[in-house]
Write a structure and sequence with these properties.
Layout lengths: L1 E8 L7 H15 L3 E8 L8 H10 L4 H14 L3 E4 L9 H9 L3 E5 L12 E2 L2 E2 L10 H6 L6 H13 L1 H7 L2 E4 L2 H10 L6 E3 L17 E5 L8 H13 L7 E4 L5 H8 L5 E3 L5 H9 L1 E6 L9 H8 L4 E4 L4 H4 L6 E4 L4 H13 L1 H18 L2 H20 L28
Parallel strand pairs: 1-2, 1-3, 3-4, 4-7, 7-8, 9-10, 9-12, 10-11, 12-13, 13-14
Antiparallel strand pairs: 5-6
Helix pairs in contact: 3-4, 9-14, 12-15
Length: 424
Amino acid sequence: MHVLVVHNRYSSAQPSGENRVVDEEVGLLRAAGHRVDLFERRSDDIAARSLLGKVAVPLLVPWNPPVRAELTARLRGERPDVVHVHNVFPLLSPAVLAACADAGVPVVATLHNFTQVCPPGTLHRDGRACTECVGSATGLPAVRHGCYRNSRLATVPLAVSMSVNRRRWWTGVDRFFCISAAQRDVLVRSGMPAERLVVKHNFVPEPDSRRTGDGEHLLFLGRLAEPKGVRLLMAAWDRLAAAGGVGVPLLLAGGGPLEAEVTAWAAGRDDVRYVGLYDPAQCREAVARAVAVVAPSVSPETFGLVVAEAMAAGVPAVAAGHGAFVELVEDGVTGLLHRPGEEASLAESLRRITADPAANREMGRTARRRYERAFSPAVGLERLVEEYRTVIAGRSGGADGAPPTGNGNAGPRRGTPRGREWGQ
């Protein structure tokens, strides 16, 4: 099968789980013998643009005409069997969908967040969950609140893109991959076409090592930002420390807007270590040595990669009981769920996960079995290829789901290109 992956890579200054998912999926497909090519832009390249070029970037967020022309020419020349779209912000834009329609190539899109119904994609504002834009065709509430980077001006291009490209997304993608049932439920309630939304969880590569003992620390691994529950975790940990602690330190690894606050909070403490950004190997090692990973997000997560990575290493999780975490963590079986946003509930879950090593080990073993059934590379590859075949067969009029022979260069496709739907 010949797959063209479309992705705008996030800035390397902030390690991105989405970038990792894309890279790992590409590697998985190539290892299985499929041809995978890339059509990319990199947010890192914005810094090298002229002042005028930087000023123009927000104008290209809703629609980037040169990208449409470039991708259309490439698709017509290479004729991939399917295009897999990931992130298009800020340098690609939904113009990539028009290019696929121009060339008559089937499209799948992984929805890594909630940008279809929330301009910044987080469903979070002012320290709490927010759904004001869900079901709205304009995104004006996000502009009013300045939801992206706390700036009304910066939010405008995202809101405009959501509004003007709503129909393009909903009619221009053959199949949307939601990475959790919780995410799909929100999108269906917003009015997105339910028949095009399927749940395809992210897979997690087999780790280099698994936990062999009881673990050495509780681990927070992720972006140091309010939606991730960092302040909630600090408050819960202070509550535990005042009561005598839990016998193991808290290790925090990551970077983000709350880094200075976390650094000051951890300074001079024996029960907390802040280590900054870890490379992938250090992340895997930290997970394998954890008593549990802690994922206290105050806004609903679409997946929760660190929880699945913990499962792969045989480590239980303490996670907020909402969003995708309810699917990933079976309370009391593969980890513990705390009441979202509640300091006392999180503190109690951290106490419980460390109080009984035997129960903790059993949770870890059960979590590992859950990983093998649901989030392993073999499962991820099977589901991904199955969905590709279904979309290809649906577009070509085939009944058995078999992809075209060869690499898709044998001539024009059957079916009518949808270029005239686009009005651009």
